[in-house]
Specification:
Dipeptide-binding Protein, domain 1, two-stranded antiparallel sheet, 6 strands, disordered N terminus
C-alpha cells in the first residue's frame, strides 16, 4: 500500500512540474491520421474532427440546426432583395500568431474557397458570389 501511495505522489509531482507551455498544449490520439487539416478541402471525418476545433466561421447554426447565430461575425444584415450580406465582425478575435482578424481575412477565405485550384468539395455552399468588399476592417460585404 505504501508503494502505491509513493508512486502516486511521485507521479503527481511530475505532472505538477509541467511548464506553462505544456498547460497550453492539447494532445489527441486518433485511430486514423488525416491526410491534411485544410477545412476548405476536407470531407473526411478524421480531418473534420480536428478542423472543427481549430477553424471558425462567420456564423454557426444553433442547436435546432436552423437558426443562424453569431460566431466570428457579431451581427449581419441582408439586403431587401436578398442579394447582399453585410457582416459586422467581432473585434476581439486574433489568430494564434497574434494577428488581428479583419475583413481582409474573410475576403481571402471566400476567394480561396471559390478558386477552382483549391478543389473545395463544398464551394457550392458559398453560392454564386459576384463581389466581395471590405468598406472597413470590421465590415465585409458579399453579393
Amino acid at each position: 500500500m505504501r508503494y502505491i501511495f509513493t508512486s502516486v505522489v511521485a507521479l503527481l509531482g511530475v505532472v505538477g512540474a509541467s511548464s506553462a507551455t505544456e498547460a497550453q498544449t492539447l494532445r489527441m490520439m486518433k485511430s486514423l491520421d488525416a491526410p491534411h487539416y485544410d477545412g476548405q478541402r476536407t470531407t473526411w471525418s478524421p480531418s473534420s474532427d480536428i478542423v472543427n476545433m481549430i477553424q471558425d466561421t462567420l456564423v454557426a447554426l444553433d442547436w435546432d440546426g436552423k437558426t443562424p447565430i453569431p460566431y466570428l461575425a457579431k451581427s449581419w444584415t441582408i439586403s431587401e432583395d436578398g442579394s447582399t450580406y453585410t457582416f459586422k465582425l467581432r473585434d476581439d478575435v486574433q489568430f494564434c500568431s497574434g494577428k488581428k482578424f479583419t475583413a481582409a481575412d474573410v475576403i481571402y477565405s471566400f476567394k480561396r474557397l471559390k478558386d477552382p485550384d483549391t478543389k473545395a468539395p463544398f464551394a457550392w455552399r458559398a453560392g454564386n458570389i459576384k463581389e466581395l468588399r471590405t468598406p472597413d476592417p470590421t465590415l465585409s460585404n458579399t453579393s
